């Protein structure tokens, strides 16, 4: 994947804060007080299509960047938190194999499909061992704050991708604004703030649905309120972790109802738009899946995906086997769902993860008063 990605965002901002070893590859404005607001699910194309619902955000000039692969929350947050692509930070999907028989759900840090907490068995700081950019900023004397949902304190994903600085848990939008503004008071400050609800409504009702658009209005007000009330020398940057596509009933291929797809598969990871297929017979599985899916998907063996740079220019040794023996990237609006094992997820209208511009392109919007 050519061009800048989410992995370039925080290093570019920290370069403006004078953090050693960082480079402003995105050419973002420099400031000693930075708030980075991540709006989950705010794809570039969706924002442009619904600009009237977000007049403040749409007024900010920006060119889009790619989320990275796969275009999914855990992977993208790890890219923001480490400044690395997925092949290096190792969070290669929503779910991925951490042993031959364990599928880690990276959002809940549980054995996928169960409530089994895996933080003790698969320690987050070991699953993602690279030093975060937040740790580097803190070492350089920057006051770092992570402002996100209160129940994410000490979560596996927080420990893996966002460690460094102080965690400030929030309960609602007003709390997010209050804590973000408070985080910008020190002389050199970096605040990472996260809002989840736009993505949630996109999954349930579909991106661009009435409920989604109404939430976008609140997101726009959220960003504008921070911009209006932050210190005059501060910088607000708004980005997203991925976009989203609508998957219709006829666009779904059900793994749990298709015996041919199950043959030879040990574990099925990823999510509906990008699947990691773990198998001891990858060539056979590749041929079978290609026969079932046809041109609805691009299917490659693990080594081909690595050679093509799907997970970035480098894949760390610890990340190698987390990538599926066969990697399946869906085309169009198609998805491979699991009606039994992933019943709730399979009913979602909105999905993301693959290579379409609707999923990959995300905004990097900046605002300052000077």
TrEMBL record:
Superkingdom of the source species: Bacteria
InterPro entries: Alkaline_phosphatase_core_sf, Phosphodiest/P_Trfase
A molecular function (GO) term: hydrolase activity
Residues annotated as signal peptide: none
Protein's name in the database: Alkaline phosphatase family protein
Record lineage: Bacteria, Bacillati, Actinomycetota, Actinomycetes, Pseudonocardiales
């Amino acid at each position: 994947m050519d061009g800048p990605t989410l992995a370039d965002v925080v290093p570019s901002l920290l370069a403006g804060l004078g953090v050693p070893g960082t480079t402003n590859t995105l050419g973002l404005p420099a400031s000693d007080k930075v708030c980075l607001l991540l709006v989950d699910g705010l794809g570039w194309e969706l924002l442009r299509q619904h600009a009237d619902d977000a007049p403040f955000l749409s007024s900010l000039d920006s060119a889009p960047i790619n989320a990275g692969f796969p275009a999914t929350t855990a992977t993208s947050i790890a890219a923001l938190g480490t400044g690395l692509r997925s092949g290096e930070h190792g969070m290669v999907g929503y779910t991925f194999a951490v042993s031959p028989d364990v599928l880690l759900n990276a959002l809940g840090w549980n054995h996928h499909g169960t409530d089994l907490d895996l933080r003790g068995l698969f320690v987050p700081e070991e699953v993602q061992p690279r030093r975060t950019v937040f740790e580097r900023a803190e070492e350089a004397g920057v006051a770092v704050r992570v402002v996100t949902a209160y129940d994410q304190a000490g979560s596996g994903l927080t420990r893996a991708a966002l460690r460094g600085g102080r965690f400030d848990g929030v309960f609602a939008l007003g709390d997010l604004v209050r804590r973000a503004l408070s985080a910008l008071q020190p002389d050199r400050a970096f605040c990472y703030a996260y809002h989840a609800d736009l993505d949630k409504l996109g999954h349930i009702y579909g991106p661009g649905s009435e409920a989604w658009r109404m939430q976008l209005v609140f997101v726009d007000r959220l960003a504008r309120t921070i911009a209006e009330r932050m210190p005059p020398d501060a910088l607000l940057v708004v980005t997203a972790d991925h976009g989203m596509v609508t998957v219709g009933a006829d666009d779904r291929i059900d793994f749990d109802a298709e015996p041919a797809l199950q043959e030879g598969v040990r574990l099925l990871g990823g999510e509906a738009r990008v699947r990691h297929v773990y198998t001891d017979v990858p060539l056979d599985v590749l041929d079978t899946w290609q026969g079932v899916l046809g041109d609805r998907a691009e299917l490659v063996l693990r080594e081909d995906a690595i050679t093509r740079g799907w997970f970035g220019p480098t894949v760390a040794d610890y990340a190698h086997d987390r990538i599926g023996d066969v990697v399946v990237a869906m085309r169009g609006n198609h998805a491979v769902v699991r009606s039994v094992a992933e019943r709730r997820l399979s009913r979602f209208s909105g999905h993301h993860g693959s290579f379409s511009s609707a999923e990959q392109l995300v905004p990097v919007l900046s605002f300052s008063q000077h």
